[in-house]
Amino acid sequence: MSETAADTMASEPPYGSHAGKVRKGDGRRQRGNRTGFTTGACSAAAARAATLGLVNGEVPDSVLCHLPNGQEVTFVVIDGYVEGEGLVRIAHAAIVKDAGDDPDATNGAHLTADVRLLPNRSGEIVLKGGPGVGTVTKEGLGLEVGGPAINPVPCRNIRDNVSIVAADLLERDGLEVTISVPGGEDMAKKTLNARLGILGGISILGTTGIVRPYSTAAFRASVVQAIEVAARQGQTCVVFTTGGRSEKFAMRQLPELDESCFVQMGDFVKAAFTTAGKHRMTYIHVGAMAGKLTKMGQGLSVTHAWKAEIDRDLLAECAREVGAPPDLVEEIRGAETARFAAERLAVLGLTVDFHRALAKKAIRSLKSCYPGPYRLSVHVCDFDGRFIVRVEEDEAR
Q1: 325 contacts: CB under 8 Å, gap ≥ 6
Q2: Where are the alpha helices (DSSP H) in 256-350?
Q3: Could you point out which of 43, 303, 332, 335 has its C-alpha 20 to 30 Å from the C-alpha of 260?
Q4: pLDDT in tens, 97-117
Q5: In sequence order, what DSSP letters do the residues of 295-313 get, joined into one string?
Q6: Domain 4-211 - what CATH class?
């Protein structure tokens, strides 16, 4: 979120925002509520269509694709063909990405799949990045350095869809699936990818398969409405989370609370806290990961990537406070993601201390920006939604 739109809101990607998002200052088109599909979903559909072509000798004009969120969606296939003979046959298919009303640099991209046989490699599905798909060159993104910028969920989804339609073939042979994006290198220039160490193209993203506009008035209004609903039900406590993964985590931490207390505020910190204050909530919990916590510690009213870059000095200061060696502190100051700091400090056994320091800074900033008699606590999880630490307001004073 975070295509971060749909997916940051739905389940925060495990690192900051290297999606095909338009940077602050770029022209952003008129926003609305129409949903679209992630690069990951389109890639999976293209891979499934091309695999059908390899299996049946002809690529279909449309293909049913299973999305990570469980939905089944039919995509129109373009540029489908099979060429070559026997073991050197290659099947080709493309899906045109429709991002809905999300201001996404990858809208209209042709997510393209080429599938070929790997004889006598039973069950193997080798996934590669072709032209227009970025290559990872820096740590801190949760992806293999030197590998394609295809996130874990889309990677699994592509393999799942290929496996469904090639089950018989895979009993004997394997398949190589290459995802490419014509023009992807130019699209990536409109994103933060290069600064994050993703070079040569865009990222293949999406934890749900669906893109929901991240910065529409409608989404902000839905945050306000959710808090109002909780208030009308007599709730005096709300739990703000930045997406689906952090919400599931927070629900596990606070099982005694009614479901109406949990509000996915996404990137809309100001809207959430001011509305909670208006309705005299007495207790606010925040469930988040390191990246969004850093943005809250910066005092940002909207935490999306196009609003402001992550404060690397803040991350470095937290690392220094918990005893990280000076050279690592400077590495963190020069890195582009909170994940880089978290992973490097984990090696030193400083995970809890670092996230506690980060949570304290977030609490002090939030209480300063949104004063009131409410009590505040921050619940921190890792990039897989696992508990790290809970910090109460009193600890941050």
Answers
A1: none
A2: 269-278, 290-297, 312-321, 326-334, 338-347
A3: 303
A4: 998 877 678 999 999 999 999
A5: HHHTT-SB-STTT----HH
A6: alpha beta
